[in-house]
UniProtKB/TrEMBL annotation:
<protein>
    <submittedName>
        <fullName>Aspartate aminotransferase family protein</fullName>
    </submittedName>
</protein>
<dbReference type="InterPro" id="IPR015422">
    <property type="entry name" value="PyrdxlP-dep_Trfase_small"/>
</dbReference>
<keyword id="KW-0663">Pyridoxal phosphate</keyword>
<dbReference type="InterPro" id="IPR049704">
    <property type="entry name" value="Aminotrans_3_PPA_site"/>
</dbReference>
<dbReference type="InterPro" id="IPR015421">
    <property type="entry name" value="PyrdxlP-dep_Trfase_major"/>
</dbReference>
<dbReference type="InterPro" id="IPR005814">
    <property type="entry name" value="Aminotrans_3"/>
</dbReference>
<dbReference type="InterPro" id="IPR015424">
    <property type="entry name" value="PyrdxlP-dep_Trfase"/>
</dbReference>
<dbReference type="GO" id="GO:0008483">
    <property type="term" value="F:transaminase activity"/>
</dbReference>
<dbReference type="GO" id="GO:0005829">
    <property type="term" value="C:cytosol"/>
</dbReference>
<dbReference type="Pfam" id="PF00202">
    <property type="entry name" value="Aminotran_3"/>
</dbReference>
<keyword id="KW-0808">Transferase</keyword>
<keyword id="KW-0032">Aminotransferase</keyword>
<dbReference type="GO" id="GO:0030170">
    <property type="term" value="F:pyridoxal phosphate binding"/>
</dbReference>
<comment type="similarity">
    <text>Belongs to the class-III pyridoxal-phosphate-dependent aminotransferase family.</text>
</comment>
């Protein structure tokens, strides 16, 4: 039910939020959107204005906003038992564990439930080190795996033995960033082979016997939505197997229907040794993450202390939200809708690209999409670099889209196009019309 507020009430909420709380990452010079409620692919401001949520908040509200089925499941669990020790068993923990065993690629067997993506990734790294006895982790140059700093080494008790030395000891492998890294008209296939050969050289030079795992987002999310050429993930899996290194796939953003398949790894039928999830697992109705471990890894830790744990691990309310959410993906056909609407959205984005010189590239899979903005299509110089001072025109582009009913995320040169998976063609058409206006503003500073 909507309760429209006055301009004074809205200003007061924004002002008190700024006065008493801090906003993440950036400076505190923000003009926060005061949200009231959400419904499907839309959110409503406190003044009653409806906006298309083109980023599913944090590429995470996958089923869409305001689903009463999830709210009811959460309430029912709260009435049963609000919290349970991570050492206890609950019906909902058994059910979601069993469901993820069935949904995730063959070979992934056991779930370790966390609160979010970062701690799922930390559990993945720690467990990889535990079972291999090696320390080094290879990661992509452009990647994001979470924001925790690693406080366990500070512990004054034996739990710190699991992570002595902190995260440390990482090396970087190249990105399969075809749009930016191809040389001399290479085909995607040739480019893919080149990136894999470079990766193999890094593995050899680092020393396979020192590397516990390669950890990648199968499709990089917040660092450019880099869709790899077909065969890259399969090639990486083969390299890991050949050199006896574990493959960890971070599907925190790409997982659970976002790419038009249950998981991004499904597009190449790749089975990682560890896969991490969060965001879409509960569609962010409440926090929950998971690290899925392969049978051999689960067996290897059977008799040794796991070295990971949190107070709210396997939280029954998070699990109740996950159970309800996973049922909704299936009952509402959201994975299929993500694939079909993704094709429809990209066709519209390509049509915009043909008219707007600022659009250098359109890429994506399912409803996981981005356009890359450039000064000039020949030189591919980024219109808004990721680092350095922000161009004032970024705010103008964003404001123009907001004024046309579209909440969209612009991060560096990438404009994300990731609406909830329940989105309809009509809503996509409306979003594209608003985006058209925003791109007109961006076009003004291109060199075209
Ligand atoms: N991994 C990826 C690929 C992400 O995109 C994110 C967050 O955006 C994380 C991990 C961290 O997840 P969280 O913020 O839930 O800790």
């Amino acid at each position: 039910m909507s309760t429209t507020m006055t301009a004074e009430q809205i200003a007061s909420i924004a002002e008190r939020t700024k006065r008493y709380t801090l906003f993440e990452w950036g400076t505190q010079d923000v003009d926060p959107f005061v949200v009231e409620r959400g419904e499907g692919a839309h959110v409503f401001g406190a003044d009653g204005t409806r906006y298309i949520d083109f980023n599913s908040v944090s590429v995470s509200v996958n089923i869409g906003h305001g689903d009463p089925r999830v709210a009811d499941a959460i309430a029912a669990q709260l009435r049963k038992i609000e919290f349970a020790s991570p050492y206890w068993a609950t019906e909902v923990r058994a059910e979601v564990g069993e469901k993820l065993n069935a949904l995730t690629p063959d070979g992934l067997e056991k779930a370790f439930f966390t609160l979010a993506g970062a701690d799922a990734n930390e559990a993945a790294i720690r467990t990889a080190r535990l079972v291999t006895g090696r320390r080094k982790i290879l990661v992509r140059r452009r990647s994001y795996h979470g924001a925790t700093m690693g406080v366990l080494p500070l512990a004054g008790d034996p739990r710190r033995y699991a992570v002595e030395g902190g995260v440390g000891d990482i090396a970087r492998i190249p990105d399969p960033y075809y749009y930016r890294r191809l040389v001399d008209g290479q085909s995607e296939q040739e480019f893919c082979e080149h990136v894999l050969a470079e990766t193999e050289e890094i593995i050899q030079l680092e020393g396979p016997h020192t590397i516990a795992a390669v950890m990648v987002e199968p499709i990089t999310g917040s660092n450019g939505l880099i869709v790899p050429p077909r065969g890259w993930l399969t090639g990486l899996r083969e390299l890991c197997t050949r050199y006896g290194i574990l493959l960890i796939c971070d599907e925190v953003m790409s997982g659970v229907g976002r790419t038009g398949a249950w998981f991004a790894v499904d597009h190449e039928q790749v089975s990682p040794d560890i896969m991490t999830l969060a965001k879409g697992l509960t569609s962010s109705y409440v926090p929950l993450g998971a690290a899925m471990f392969s049978g051999p890894i689960a067996a290897a830790v059977q008799g040794v202390p796991l070295g990971s744990g949190l107070t709210y691990q396997s939280h029954p309310v998070g699990l109740a939200a996950a159970k309800a959410t996973l049922e909704i993906y299936e009952s509402d056909g959201l994975i299929e809708n993500s694939a079909v609407m993704g094709d429809y959205l990209r066709a519209g984005l390509r049509e915009l690209a043909a008219r707007h010189p600022c659009v250098g590239d359109v890429r994506g899979a399912g409803l996981f999409n981005a356009i890359e903005l450039v000064h000039d299509r020949e030189t591919k110089v980024e219109l808004f670099p990721l680092t350095g001072p922000q161009d004032p025109i970024v705010r103008e582009v964003t404001r123009t889209m907001v004024n046309n009913g579209l909440l969209a995320a612009l991060r560096g040169p990438w404009l994300m196009a990731c609406p909830p998976l329940c989105v309809t063609p009509t809503t996509i058409d409306d979003a594209l019309a608003a985006l058209d206006k925003g791109l007109e503003v961006a076009d003004r500073i291109t060199s075209a």
